[in-house]
Here is the input.
Amino acid sequence: MATSVQRASQLTMADLKGRVDPDWCPGCGDFGVLAAIQKALVELQIPSHNVVAISGIGCSSNLPGFINTYGMHTLHGRALAVATGLKLANHELTVLVTGGDGDGFGIGGNHFVHTMRRNVDLLYIVMDNQIYGLTTGQTSPTSRVGMKTKSMPFGNIEAPVNPISLALAAGATFVARGFSGDQKHLTELIKQGIGHKGFSFLDVFSPCVTYNHDNTYQWYRPRVKKLEDDAAYDAADWTAAMEKSLLWGEEIPIGKFFARTDLPSLHAAEPVLNEGPLVHLDPRVPPDVARGFIEELM
Amino acid sequence: MKQTFAIAIGGAAGQGVATPGDIFAKIFSRRGLSLNAYNAYQSIIRGGHTLLTIRTGPEHVSNMGDRIDLLIPLNQDTMDRHLKLLTSGAACIYNAETIKPGSAADGVQLCPLPVSELADISRNKVAQNTLAIGAGLHMMGIGFAALEEALREQFKKKGESVVVENVGVARAGYDYAAAHFTAFSNPLPKTEKRYAVLSGNTAMAMGGAAAGVKFYCAYPMSPSTGVLHWMAAHARKAGIMVRQVEDEIGVINMAIGAAHAGVRSMCATSGGGFALMSEGLGMSAMIETPVLVIDCQRAGPSTGVPTKTEQGDLWQMLGAAFGDYPRLIAAPLDIADCFKVIPEMFNLVDRFQCPGLVLCDLLLSEGRLGVDPKDLDFNPAIDRGELITGVNGNGNGASAAIATNGGYKRYKITESGISPRAVPGVPGHIHTVATDEHMEDGVLISDEFTNPIKRRAMMEKRMRKVVGIEAAVPPSTLWGPRDAEVTLIGWGSTKGVIEEACEMLNEEGISANQLQIRWLVPLHGEVILELLKDARQTIIVENNYSGQFARYLRSETSFVPDGNIRKYDGEPFMPHHIVEAVKEQLAGKTKLSVPMHEIMV
Here is the structure.
């Protein structure tokens, strides 16, 4: 019976289509990320009402409006904090956090680090285009040194952050990098990230075709090399992952850098949730417990 | 004049001021005496100076009062600072071997304790404290059994020998006082009342638990940290998820995230942390997810005076986050009200789906009050408003077909402005909420679809909630004779001290009444105007420099008082500050009184 019901209500790509079409520039890398998320959800068959897509602000952060799941389009840089609260209040939900490099590594940098060390069970997808798009082309925390933008017209003199190394150092338990130009690979990484019980970080090269003329599809294609193609690479080895994360230039690794499953996620570590999600708990403090609270004061 | 008795215990931080304070508080409350405690201290962990005042009496004691009856200085500094405050009938108990008394006013009894003769000070470092407690209780006319019981509870974790030793030392002090000191003329009575003694922070935390808070998060900041401490210590028993967050920006966003999933969610901070939360409040208003934020005010601006009180955040509250949106702001009137206001506020913010702000201050947050346990009601009304959860939603099947959108519109335009709120996880109600302006279904209108007609409709929908909020919140009332000579207007934590000042004025033949504001938003300005229209002389009393409430009241009603009493030195008002200021204003000497605080800490 259960099986037949499931078949009858098979989730399809059409079910996940949002109410409005994306307003991204034609050719934007974010289209590929959106499609990969939808494909991953269809392949995993997670009921769409149990998925919450949470974003900050920016071009890529408009994504929750373009996918038919529950969504929250929050404040610039704050999506991870909102997502942490939401996940802790109802840990039965599948939480996807989406946003850009400015949102996540700039204004939201503090939350990024702390959400990783807390091992909150969610998938954080950063559509990394190394530029601020929605504000019409300024330097971002991942812009390369020397890159000329409207805010640094004579070239960036600040070193970029390395999101993969940062995530590894901050204690993320799943760290991967994808490329919007490789749908199949990206979809697989998203599926793994959703399945991982803990914080999953997925940095995705998602080229900005309007403002970033340095890091284009053509620039990435010959450079990206899948870690999965290297049979000797062990994603359980943190030191090896850290070493790989430093590679940049002619060869840029993509794929799963690191994963560990021996640590509990935040909600699994908190005994208050043993009785189930907070949202389903009786709001009343039991009378004998309340009495005890008052007697402590007498 | 009602019978009260105040003890002040002073010393350096780390010298053990708190323990005698706790013991006195326990003994008084178990005698059925009301009590109010205020600790004046500095932002220092060891050293400096701290002065704890505990005032007690058989009738309700609402503030620290004007008089110290018994001073217990634990070091020379305390003696030097405060002996001069004592007046006839008061006493000072001190270690004769380490502290020199200085000159006292006539009628002040100096009570030196030969500490090393009465206790083995090589073994017991705080013997002077325990001796002083024993001596003091004898002078108050309290039997030794009460002290023995309190000491037993205090030290039972350290083992029987520690209990016995401390009881012995206390007994020595008690007996020494019997032989050498004169008892106070009015022994402390006993009543049949029972009190729970708690701080405002504990009260607000417990109020949250009673209201059904399931998520609490905070970043430590004085004087709000007590809320976090109670929540953290009781979380598992109460079934509350408590998190310490990286900063207050994270706090407000995490709290809203949890609230969005459908639980009651609360956080507390002080002015600086609240400043960081400002943008988040706008989000709560825009996505219409209710959240409750407590601001325990301390003296500002900036880091300000972390251990001192002020009512200086009102305009920050009124202006928090940009744009217009419905909000509620309540200032609890006393520590019992700190408990009560939380479930009330949650019912309102759940109903109106907007942020609710509780404007407390250090005086209440860290002060302590004996409260009738019946006033700590763990079974208050809980009204979650128009909330669609998995239980009451239409979703029993989790099929993808019904998970796609039916006719549900999260921001449906209604007459009340309230739109039924479905939480994530409920089938058939999928929607995206947005901090950008959006249409009824949540789709953004801010980017390519910008449309002034839709923007106006959504703005008006949200702001229509204000009408409902005004109807749901009762206006203030005037306490005391309508035709009084002077009307004192205060808000929040000044309730007790103004009340006592009114009593003192009435006793002196100056009839006074009081208008105490609890709800700042909604203010009910027209009701206030009506209450004040016959007032003969109006004076606004507040703990800040610029008259924040006076300016707010004027902005809302055009009302200008005859005078103001303001205090911005970090310390709370004492009743005589207000009484003297009223008299000078009635005599036409000034329209702005700024009382000088006599107790230097």
About this structure: Chain A touches chain B through 67 residues (CB under 8 Å).
